Amino acid sequence: MKRVTGLGGLFFKARDPKALAAWYERHLGMKVEEWGGVVFRWADDPAAANGTTIWSPFAADTGYFAPSTSPFMVNFRVADLHALLAALRAEGCQVEDKVDESEYGKFGWVIDPDGNKLELWEPPAGR
Known about the structure:
- It comes from Roseateles subflavus.
- The chain has 2 helices and 8 strands; from the N terminus they run βαβββαββββ.
- By secondary structure, it is α+β, with helices and mostly antiparallel strands.
- It is globular.
């Protein structure tokens, strides 16, 4: 079974996410979307032409990374979310019960041994 297939995104806490995103846009040329993050398209890899990696600052007081107290969360692309979550549970990993499914794909979470929350993302077909 394939497990992680790529980096889906980097999410981190910021005192002022909008101001920080504006700084990155102005000084580093990153195109910040209306929702506050940047989408990097994998244009250099023809085999993964539809692939993306997300960069996104979150409010410093966000609860989205809970139960982790880390100021960041890494999102990994996966091939089969439900199979991977089952395998991780069987291996004794701390896996959250919640799974989100939407037009953006399937999302699940696991906590690493240092207490960092990792988001696992199975993109929708064709992405």
